[in-house]
Each structure stands twice: as structure tokens, then as C-alpha cells.
Amino acid sequence: MTFESEFYEQDMDVFKGTDVPVIVTITNATTSIATWTFAFTVRRRAGDSATPIFTKTTGFVINDTDKTVSFTIADELTNSVRIRQYYWDLKRTDTDNEKIVASGNFNLLGTAATPA
């Protein structure tokens, strides 16, 4: 899945138990993004302050030339999650620069072994 961002909203359709590569382009970055840090979070719904369904804070590959952030939603992150619609966001987490750069619905779909 490839997204352009700042601020970008896009739905993700993800099959349960499947690795999903994601690329987000930060389109309005006017400076280097090489030192930026990120968190990818899936919640029950937008604005939900309860404990997230899962959060990924490592494994981001930043390409400063193309202004892209790449990562994989590993299959084990969705294996035990109930099939339904959630909400995702990608947040820049640097001190004094915290802000959501992309978000949308996270549609967790069934597989052949776990039909929807």
C-alpha cells in the first residue's frame, strides 16, 4: 500500500495474518526527515484514548531523498485481532514535533482460514 501524506487519509484493507508493506510519502516536508521517528497505531475508532489494538514503533525505513517512510505490518500483529473495521494513524513522534501525518480506516478482513 502506498500513500501520500501531510495530512493524508486513506483506508487500508488488510487480510488477517498477512504481512502488509506500507509506504507513506510525506509530501510537504521542506527539511530532512532522516531523523524523524514514527509510531503506527491501530485503535477501535478515531479519537479513541483507550489502549490501542496494536502499536508499531520500530522497523521504519526512511528515505530522505524521496521523503518516504516504509514499514511492514507483520502478520503476527493481526493474528489475534477480531475481524472488523478499526482506525489507523501514522504519527511523527519526535519531541516537540508530535503530529499525525496520515490516518484512515483499517479494515481487517478474513482469510481462507478465518472468513469474515
Kindly, what is the distance between the CA atoms of the first and last residues, rounded to a whole number of angstroms? 21 Å
Order of helices and strands: EEEEEEEEHEE
What's the alpha carbon Rg, rounded to whole Å? 14 Å
How much of the sequence lies in strands comes to over 45%
- The CATH topology comes to Immunoglobulin-like
What class would the helix/strand composition place it in? mainly beta
Give the count of structural domains.
1
CATH class: Mainly Beta
Share of residues in helices: under 10%
The tally of strands reads 10
Tally of helical runs: 1
Please summarize the sheet with the most strands: 6 strands, mixed
List the helices and strands and how they pair.
Layout: E1 2-5, E2 8-9, E3 12-15, E4 20-26, E5 38-43, E6 54-56, E7 61-63, E8 68-73, H1 75-78, E9 85-92, E10 99-109
Parallel strand pairs: 1-4, 2-10, 3-10
Antiparallel strand pairs: 4-8, 5-6, 5-9, 7-8, 9-10
Give an account of the 3D structure.
The chain is mainly beta and 116 residues long. The model has no long low-confidence stretch (mean pLDDT 88). The chain has one helix at residues 75-78, and strands at residues 2-5, 8-9, 12-15, 20-26, 38-43, 54-56, 61-63, 68-73, 85-92, 99-109. The two termini are 21 Å apart. It is globular and about 40 Å long.
Compact overview of the structure:
With 116 residues, the protein is mainly β.
Give a quick set of tags describing it.
about 120 residues, Immunoglobulin-like, 6-stranded mixed β-sheet, mainly beta, 4-stranded mixed β-sheet, globular, 10 strands
